[in-house]
Amino acid sequence: MIADKLNVLELGEIKEIQKKSTREDVTRLILDRQEDIEATFTENEYLKIDLTHSEILGLKSHSMLGTMKIGDLPAMDYVIRHNDKYRKADIFNLGNVDDLYKKIEI
């Protein structure tokens, strides 16, 4: 049913903040690595950050259930649940690439 593959960007910096990471640490890392993230995930993939393995995971779903398209987040959750490496990892949602770096006008 879902044959999409994860795109992975390794982030060595997380290893230093893994045990004591705060929201600010992770936010700074994501902002500092914007160019790398946008260059790696070019299809507006849904992103998750894996603090256990120091990686950002991305997936763009092309899967279908009958005639219905399966969304990025459900497809990614399925792939992670069925992957021995990521099943028990400490993973947080980041959203789609475009939304992650969208500029909000007030």
Which structural traits does this protein have?
single chain; four-stranded antiparallel β-sheet; two-stranded antiparallel ribbon; alpha+beta; 106 residues
Please describe what this structure looks like.
With 106 residues, the protein is of the alpha+beta class. The protein has one domain (7-100). The chain has helices spanning 14-17, 23-32, 34-40, 72-81, 97-100, and strands spanning 7-10, 46-50, 55-59, 64-65, 68-69, 91-96.
Oligomeric state of the chains present here: single chain
Radius of gyration: 14 Å
Strand order in the sheet with the most strands: 1-3-2-6
Total tally of structural domains: 1
- Inertia-based shape: globular
- Beta-strand portion reads 15-25%
Give a quick account of the main beta sheet: strands, pairing sense, barrel closure.
4 strands, antiparallel
Which regions are unreliable across 5 or more consecutive residues at pLDDT < 50?
none
- Assign a percent range to the helix content: 25-40%
From the N-terminal CA to the C-terminal CA, the straight-line distance is: 42 Å
Q: Tally the beta strands.
A: 6
Question: N-to-C SSE series?
Answer: EHHHEEEEHEH
Enumerate how many helices there are, as a single number.
Answer: 5
The average pLDDT value, as a whole number, equals 87
User: Structural class of the helices, strands and pairings?
Assistant: alpha+beta
